[in-house]
Amino acid sequence: MTAQKMPQRSADGTVGKALEILDQVAEFGRPVRFGELLAASEHPKATLYRLVQTLTNQGMLSFDVEKQTYAPGLRLVRLAHAAWRQSSLAPVARPFIDKLSSAVGETIHLAQLDRGQVLYVDKRNATQPIEMFSQAGKIGPGYCTGVGKAMIAHLGDEAREDAIHRQAFFAHTPHTLATEDAFRAELDEIRTEGVAYDREEHEPGIICISAPILSETGRVIGALSITSSMQRQSLEGLTAFRSILLQTANDIAKAAENWQFPS
Amino acid sequence: MTAQKMPQRSADGTVGKALEILDQVAEFGRPVRFGELLAASEHPKATLYRLVQTLTNQGMLSFDVEKQTYAPGLRLVRLAHAAWRQSSLAPVARPFIDKLSSAVGETIHLAQLDRGQVLYVDKRNATQPIEMFSQAGKIGPGYCTGVGKAMIAHLGDEAREDAIHRQAFFAHTPHTLATEDAFRAELDEIRTEGVAYDREEHEPGIICISAPILSETGRVIGALSITSSMQRQSLEGLTAFRSILLQTANDIAKAAENWQFPS
DNA sequence: ATCTTGGTTTCATTTAGTGGAACCAGTTTC
DNA sequence: GAAACTGGTTCCACTAAATGAAACCAAGAT
């Protein structure tokens, strides 16, 4: 089995534990029996049971009476709606992404950093229609995606170290930078370069160019990327997008500064 | 053992309280100051403070250091992704909705019931492109929407009573059924009718026809609706969709029965 | 009919949550 | 320039809530 330990979240209090359970259920990716959960959990039966009970009648977990399984609850969808509108860059960035999308005709990703991991908050694909939550909310590794590297490279020293230590450094492809040292070197490169490239590091044949979105004070607030495949493009081809990508990232940053939420 | 637990008011344990806070923040619809939250809360300063702290470093709330405001956190988006894929009807229903959408050329909604409220989990609009989370995750009232009425009408007695008591019965329009009695009568009607109509009860000029999605055992698992406006359609016009709507609802129910999650 | 397996409940013990009050900046007011 | 606010953070005795070992229950399996 693949016993890969995730970076631990300082489980403060009961609330922390409850949320940890929630994460576990979510990670299964399918409805789970109580027993399975118990096996994967530190907690004794009774404790886990009560925790799950609480989450369930709070609507954070949904319980399928017929199949006796638990899954992340719909209340989350409701809350995420609010989160997405308020905390994510997506609403602000939308017009710019639309423009960029039609200008370059390639897939666009908008992502933010969540504890060292890449969280995609929006996506535009020239050809296919958008796929709702199946795209937004998706997560990916920080160390081998263009957006991930672009963001981590521009973090402050402290935050960057933290992010680096959260990486799993699994070699998805022969091109993956799978060691901390190689990764650090790449980050330096990216900082001087201004943009990050994904040279088939995550998926074979998939390449991208990515730029960070930085606030006026230099804080990393997200990243933007143009993705393509080796069939359609070369790395040099992507370089041609450098200018428009940086411009768009800048536009989004500006727009984010004086973003007022609709009453 | 009597199943009588009247005093519930979303108050089980610390976890319940924390989630309540989360809801409150989400309800603001914009970043909030600690003070504002305090004013809207029952809890004393210190308690609220700690709760908010916990939620924040759990990633359930995000804190804008510059503006000193809280908003629902990105961790929710990640969790919701899982919830949407697993607990919602959307992934199963997608192909059917697509088909229905292109067949009727009107707006389609897919919704589920969450504590008496309507939670939209997917939407198809013939003309406009999809709008990610800005649509999925949206909530609406149960008593004055087609999907809401269709679902509540087909609940079991106990659950239906519960749902009815959760309704606010605010008269959004002159046509809103704003009393419990009128609502009950309408529900009876809907049960014999098989479909529910929204006759400008929520928004002026907006009408819809809706069918519940029922499991083989008769449990309500969601609802489907075709929405239009008085400009484009009449109620009679919508009636023409009755058959295809019921058919689609049925297809979705069938598909949901033997839905296996992708490993 | 008895043994497992998987889920639920009890209850004395322990731990974590609570909240009144004090404390600290920064701002405003006098 | 001191004094009174305002908004946020920390203390700590008190209390309510979480804990978990063990008992219990309901099916299926043997």
Summarize the structure in short.
2 copies of one chain form a homodimer. By secondary structure, chain A is of the alpha+beta class.
What sequence of helices (H) and strands (E) makes up the elements of chain A? HHHEEHHEEEHHHEEEHH
Biggest pleated sheet of chain A: 6 strands, antiparallel
Ends apart, CA distance between termini of chain A: 50 Å
Low-confidence stretches of chain A: 1-9, 129-134
What is the overall number of helices of chain A? 10
Q: Specify the CATH class of the largest domain in chain A.
A: Alpha Beta
Category by helix and strand content of chain A: alpha+beta
Q: What oligomeric assembly is this protein in?
A: homodimer
What is the number of independent domains of chain A?
2
Number of strands of chain A: 8
Strand content of chain A: 15-25%
The CATH architecture of the largest domain in chain A comes to: 2-Layer Sandwich
Shape of chain A: globular
- What would you give as the CATH superfamily of the largest domain in chain A? GAF domain
> Percent range for helical residues of chain A?
40-55%
The strand line-up of the biggest sheet of chain A is 5-4-3-8-7-6
